[in-house]
């Protein structure tokens, strides 16, 4: 009697790094309100051959031509080596649903889905904390530095604040909509990081600390007015805004439409706008679709925070 082969499929949502107020320290997982997924999927199944990866999906053509350079394969190799397992017997498929170099945590979504999938396939030898550390390391290999503000929310869901010893969930504001718009062009995270100064003036450092502390306090007390008053980026936006086509004009227009906060998602070019209700979110989305999106690769989504993060499905083939 032949034994059924196991198959594991994992979805990892898109995420916004920084959320303006927490450069490299704060990130949010995104769930479109229309119920359509916004994130990569990785499927792992047993095979009789060497470790392999097939890429499909709307943004698969933008992935590195050499599959060995794909972060999903690198994640699987790293996991197998770390576990002392041979590089064979696994067939991976990546559904590349997120644009690359977008500010939507595209590589992080692939990393989270890949590592969660292989870990689940082997019955979870790594703990969630060990897996999160590995995700940060692998994401750091391609984005130019180790920062957890995309992998932590994509893995754990919600609004995640990085601490010395891991990630802590912050209570978000349930009423808020997060409208995200990706114009359809690529900006490399490493290049957008190279725009930043290596040191900040003392006054900027003080303002950053005060704003982040106020935001965290406001989340815990559910003080919406205080949270919105400090949802500003004094670290990266001043150096990046001019390098994102149309960003400054869109930010001004969205503020004029009444959006109480607008910022760069991760290192851009995606921008986010907070909207207090659905009507305002729809007005912002219409504006962004008409004036910020540059080509057919672009997208606009009205989102809430994704409270779940990674989703693992097991099945037999
Ligand atoms: N599965 C993958 N998904 C995304 N990028 C990948 C993947 N595998 C390899 N790469 C490469 O990793 C690099 C990712 O660059 P970068 O960090 O700028 O993009 P990103 O993760 O999409 O950014 P962002 O976090 O702003 O969405 C690119 O050079 C891309 O070709
Ligand atoms: N915190 C990172 C996020 C990149 O997506 C940055 O802004 O460079």
CATH architecture of the largest domain: 2-Layer Sandwich
Overall pLDDT level: 95
Q: Give Rg in angstroms.
A: 19 Å
Largest sheet: 8 strands, antiparallel
Query: Given this structure, which CATH class of the largest domain is correct?
Result: Alpha Beta
Question: Which cofactor or ligand species appear?
Answer: adenosine-5'-triphosphate, L-homoserine
Distance separating the two termini: 15 Å
Domains, number: 2
Q: Look up the CATH topology of the largest domain.
A: Ribosomal Protein S5, domain 2
Q: How much beta, percentage-wise?
A: 25-35%
Summing up helix and strand content along with how strands pair, one would put the structural category as: alpha+beta
pLDDT < 50 runs, ≥5 residues? none
Shape: globular
Helix content: 25-40%
How many helix segments?
10
Order of helices and strands: EEEEEHEHHHEEEHHHHHEEHEE
Please report the total strand number as a whole number.
13
Outline the structure in words:
The structure is a single chain. The protein is globular and about 60 Å long. The strands form two sheets. Strands 2, 3, 7, 8, 9, 10, 11 and 12 form an eight-stranded antiparallel beta sheet that branches. A five-stranded mixed beta sheet has the order 5-6-4-1-13. The chain has ten helices and 13 strands. 35% of the residues lie in helices and 26% in strands. Helix 1 runs parallel beside helix 2 and helix 2 (106-121) runs antiparallel to helix 3. The two termini are 15 Å apart. The mean pLDDT is 95. It folds into two domains: 6-170 and 306-316, 2-Layer Sandwich (Ribosomal Protein S5, domain 2), CATH 3.30.230; 177-304, GHMP kinase, C-terminal domain (Alpha-Beta Plaits, 2-Layer Sandwich), CATH 3.30.70. It has helices at 71-82, 106-121, 128-143, 151-156, 189-194, 202-221, 224-229, 237-240, 247-256, 278-291, and strands at 6-13, 15-17, 26-32, 39-50, 52-56, 88-95, 159-163, 166-170, 177-182, 261-264, 271-275, 299-305, 311-316. The chain has 317 residues and is α+β, with helices and mostly antiparallel strands. Bound molecules: adenosine-5'-triphosphate and L-homoserine. L-homoserine is lined by residues 17-18, 23-24, 103, 105, 147, 149-150, 189, 192-193, 236, 266-267. Belongs to the GHMP kinase family. Homoserine kinase subfamily. Pathway: Amino-acid biosynthesis; L-threonine biosynthesis; L-threonine from L-aspartate: step 4/5. This is Homoserine kinase.
């Amino acid at each position: 009697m032949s034994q059924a082969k196991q198959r594991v499929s994992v979805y990892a949502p898109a995420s916004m790094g920084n959320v303006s107020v927490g450069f490299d320290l704060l990130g949010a997982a995104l769930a479109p309100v229309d119920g359509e997924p916004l994130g990569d999927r990785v499927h792992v199944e047993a095979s009789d051959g060497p470790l392999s990866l097939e890429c499909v999906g709307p943004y698969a053509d933008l992935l590195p031509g050499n599959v060995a350079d794909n972060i999903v394969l690198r994640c699987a190799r790293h996991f197998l080596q770390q576990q002392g397992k041979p590089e064979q017997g696994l067939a991976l498929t990546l559904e590349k649903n997120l644009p690359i170099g977008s500010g939507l945590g595209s590589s992080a979504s692939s990393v989270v889905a890949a590592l969660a999938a292989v870990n689940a396939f082997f019955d979870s030898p790594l703990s969630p904390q060990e897996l999160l550390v590995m995700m940060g390391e692998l994401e750091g290999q391609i984005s130019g530095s180790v920062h957890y503000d995309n992998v932590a929310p994509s893995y754990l869901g919600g609004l995640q604040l990085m601490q010395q010893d891991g990630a802590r969930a912050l209570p978000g504001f349930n009423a808020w909509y997060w409208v995200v718009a990706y114009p359809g062009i690529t900006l490399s995270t490493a290049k957008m990081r190279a725009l930043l100064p290596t040191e900040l003036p003392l006054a900027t450092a003080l303002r950053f600390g005060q704003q982040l502390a106020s935001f965290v306090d406001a989340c815990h007390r559910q003080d919406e007015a205080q949270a919105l008053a400090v949802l500003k980026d004094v670290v990266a936006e001043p150096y990046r805004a001019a390098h994102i086509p149309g960003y400054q004009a869109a930010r001004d227009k969205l503020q004029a439409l009444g959006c109480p906060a607008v910022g760069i998602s991760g290192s851009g070019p995606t921008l986010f706008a907070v909207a207090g209700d659905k009507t305002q979110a729809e007005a912002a989305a219409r504006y962004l679709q008409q004036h910020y999106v540059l080509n057919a690769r672009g997208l606009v989504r009205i989102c809430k925070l994704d409270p779940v993060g990674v989703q693992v499905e097991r099945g037999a083939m």
